[in-house]
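Mods, move this if it's the wrong board.
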Amino acid sequence: MSEVPEMRNQQWETTQNTYFKLSRALRRSKFTETEILSKCRELKVLLVDKAQELQVAQASKLDDDVTISSLRHEMEKAVSRADLMTARELAAKQLISELQREVDNLRSRLAAEQPRTTVLAAATAPLEARSASVLRPIPTPPAVPSMGDDLNTPFEEWKKAKRIPRAR
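Not the wrong board. Structure tokens:
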């Protein structure tokens, strides 16, 4: 009978050892599970924060896209206005150049006509009139107003009525 208690004792020890092994494994498993769950909570919080940052970034991107498109549109309008003004300036310079040439041409024609009429008049006039015409000064051509002078032409009056600024 002494063998039976010894056998029970051995069975008890093996059962006890198995129980302790399972208990340690269960504790380790529970500890690992709590660690994993805490990591999952941290990752979930981090994921929510990043999702909010992503939404803010997407909203900011949409605002930036709208701003960029409006600035691009304004830039295109400014470039077209600049091109228009450049064309107008070029046309105005050409007009000024043509008018200056015309004024120079008219002055030269007037200067060329002036002495000829004086000489013809002097040659055909009687002698007394010739001496009087020699003493008389030759009239100078009328002055052509410069761009800075006030002109009261119908065109200038129209510009004033339409409130168009004067070119400088």
